Amino acid sequence: MDKTKVDDMLISMIEPKIDEIERKFSNNEALDNQDINTLLLKSQYNHINHLDLKLNEVTADVASLKGEFNGLRGEFNGLKGEFNGLRGEFSLLESRMETMIQKALNKNMMSLIIVLGLFMTISKIIDTFL
Question: Which ranges does the record mark as transmembrane (predicted)?
């Protein structure tokens, strides 16, 4: 954790009193209200430091998630571009298929007309001779 000068000053201000309280406690002496308040102050200070550490971790995680999200956004935009490219290819393929189908229909229609014309001609020839 990065401590500031204020952090160091607060700890250094109560540290001598904490040492005195620890000595009293070790000797089974009674603690007065000021001792208890000093212990509570140190406890709160430790709690604030702990929360500050957690806040730093959460901030780092959020920054990391933001980076990952931006990476995913880039990948999504890349996929979007590929999809648009595929859409263009499918449009081109559809156009080619329509052209091929039209050509096949025209060829089949022409073949049908030729066969019908040939059939009519042959049947006229047969009808003339009979």
Answer: 109-126
Per-residue pLDDT at 47 = 84
- Band (pLDDT 50/70/90 cuts) for residue 116 is very high
Q: What is the pTM of this model?
A: 0.50
pLDDT digits (tens, 9 = 90+) for 41-58: 888 888 888 888 898 899
- Domain residues for the domain of 41 are 5-95
Alpha helices in the chain (DSSP H): 5-26, 33-129
Which residue carries 């956004």 as its tokens? 73
Q: Is residue 71 part of a domain?
A: yes
The answer to whether residue 114 is domain-embedded is no
52 contacts: CB under 8 Å, gap ≥ 6: 1
- Does a structural domain hold residue 108? no
Residue 91 lies in a domain: yes
Cα distance between residue 109 and residue 22, in whole Å? 107
